Amino acid sequence: MIQNLTIVVVDDHPILLKGLIDELKSYDYNVVAEAENGAQALDRIIDLKPSIAILDIELPLLSGFEIIQKCQEESPNTKFIILTSFKEKSFVLKAQKLNISGYILKDEPFIELHNCIQKVSKGESYFSKSFNEILTNEIAPEIEKMKFLSPSERTIVRMVASGKTSKEIGESLSISNRTVEKHRSNIINKLDLPHQGDALVVWAKEHKELILSI
Hints:
single chain; alpha/beta; Rossmann fold; 2 domains; 11 helices
């Protein structure tokens, strides 16, 4: 079973990359290629069409997410596992949107990656406990709050997330600044945010991926 799997491993830290490959080979996994940047990774995944590609998010030239987006058409049978140090909500949400098969943190023991590979090879998904906790405890509650926003309020939240000021939003939607501010106040109330400072702007930037997905 293991020998039938072909794996491409991508990481921009040579020592970490070598250590990961050595661990995989000690479990008899067939590592067919490695890469230290996004461009190399993209070429090798498209050329070799491995069963599984294991890659970090932040890489030179192309990010892990960009590689996955480009490969999903060129190598549709390749399953992707993210192996990273990042567990911020925006990364977790992006991984979920891309329908990535696995998400493992680098500070977890190798057995977690092994378990992930085994599940993914069977067509299942496998995510770090931290990944699932963020989805359940941090992202899901925000999605529930956003369901209470009206279509107009959702439009304004998207524009806030894109960096638009109240003046720019008003001009774009042909409404007065006062109307925009009223909408913003209603949005803040529905999202249970403080009215002081730039709470809505901060929230919108932090949840940009989530906002753009609704």
